[in-house]
Design a protein that fits this description.
This protein is α/β, with parallel strands linked by helices and about 350 residues long. It is built from 12 helices and 11 strands.
Length: about 350
């Protein structure tokens, strides 16, 4: 499995990218990694020689987080994101991973790999932790803000394939994000989407469980939740901010309780151990990166604030996505939609 990693993308690149890539190379002996970036800056964070299964690919430009994606790619053809895309286009790698400018990663991926047959628009699928230890996939979270009903249906099909193949959910339950679970809730467009999802469910192509609300994403009421990219991105950023603030406050309260003796009745290691488990449960780095669904290839978008652990897990997601035939299963499912007369 050949994976290109954008060594210059992210707030803490290239240090944490290199560290995460080296950890992945050690953990996954079936992976060949290509670190794409400025050689001198990358090598500064490598002790000695690179491992045998890690190759350095030169890219002497960097696209900043605030740059306009399309303009930056045109101006900087030697940027790390553009070079990663070129490797994917030339089929020298099976997947790319980047924590850089999300718009530029999407644009480079679309230029490098055509859309799968029948796909109208690609979507970003993010995994959220759920009550009970499960995982819910939200799609889309920013690639498509001008949605049509058929886009929701295709996201439901594609995210279901990802949930089955990568997350191991045998029969993913699909929910449509709405302001209520009643059939009358939402505008005319969402009611049309619901009708389309119900039609696909009747044909046995998805397991649609109806409308869900925002809190249901975290309560495990559905394994796949579809929404437009604007709403999805807002949920993603809100959830990240809320989790971070809650954890910071909880750590502060616990430190005060331990120092004052208020928590003396409980062993300190039990308290800190529970806090550590909660922190891991809410930590985005546990869940790796988000795949760009719908392209004839594999592009994993990692968080801009990714640490080495997150990069390692993003590489693992890329590996699993490519190895387990997610795109083949998406293409098959979309073909079945057409064969059974469901508008797609």
């Amino acid at each position: 499995m050949r994976i290109a990693v954008d060594a210059m993308g992210g707030d803490r690149a290239p240090k944490v990218i290199v560290e995460g890539a080296l950890a992945a190379a050690e953990a996954f002996p079936d992976v060949q990694l290509y670190l794409v970036g400025k050689p001198d800056e990358v090598r500064a964070f490598v002790d000695g020689e690179l491992p045998e299964r890690v190759t350095l690919v030169e890219a002497d430009e960097v696209i900043g987080m605030e740059e306009h994606p399309a303009k930056a790619l045109r101006r900087k053809p030697s940027s790390s994101i553009a070079v990663c895309g070129g490797l994917l286009r030339e089929q020298k790698v099976d997947a790319i991973v980047s924590a850089g400018n999300t718009g530029a990663v999407i644009a480079a991926s679309l230029f490098a790999a055509r859309l799968l047959e029948g796909v109208h628009r690609p979507g970003i699928a993010v995994s959220f932790p759920c009550k009970g230890g499960g995982t819910s996939v939200l799609c889309d979270v920013g690639a498509n803000i001008n949605m049509k009903p058929v886009h929701y249906l295709q996201y439901a099909v594609m995210a279901s394939a990802y949930s089955r193949d990568v997350l191991g959910v045998e029969k993913p339950r699909v929910g449509l994000l709405n302001i209520g679970t009643e059939e009358s809730k939402g505008g005319s467009e969402l009611r049309a989407v619901r009708g389309l999802l119900e039609e696909a469910a009747e044909a046995g192509l998805i397991h649609f469980v109806g409308a869900v609300e925002g809190n249901h994403i975290f309560e495990g009421e559905a394994d796949v939740v579809v929404c437009d990219g604007f709403v999805g991105n807002t949920i993603l950023k809100s959830a990240e901010g809320a989790a971070r603030v809650v954890m910071e406050q909880l750590e502060g309260f616990l430190a005060q309780a331990l120092s004052s003796g208020a928590a003396a009745a409980l062993p300190a290691d039990a308290l800190t151990g529970s806090l550590r488990k909660l922190k891991e449960f809410t930590d985005y780095s546990t869940y790796g990166g988000a795949p760009l669904l719908g392209i004839d290839g594999c592009a994993i978008i990692a968080h801009g604030r990714s640490n080495a652990r997150a990069i390692k897990h993003a590489i693992e997601v890329a590996r699993d996505f490519a190895q387990r035939g997610v795109n083949e299963h998406i293409a098959q499912a979309l073909g079945e939609l057409s064969a059974k007369g469901v508008p797609s």
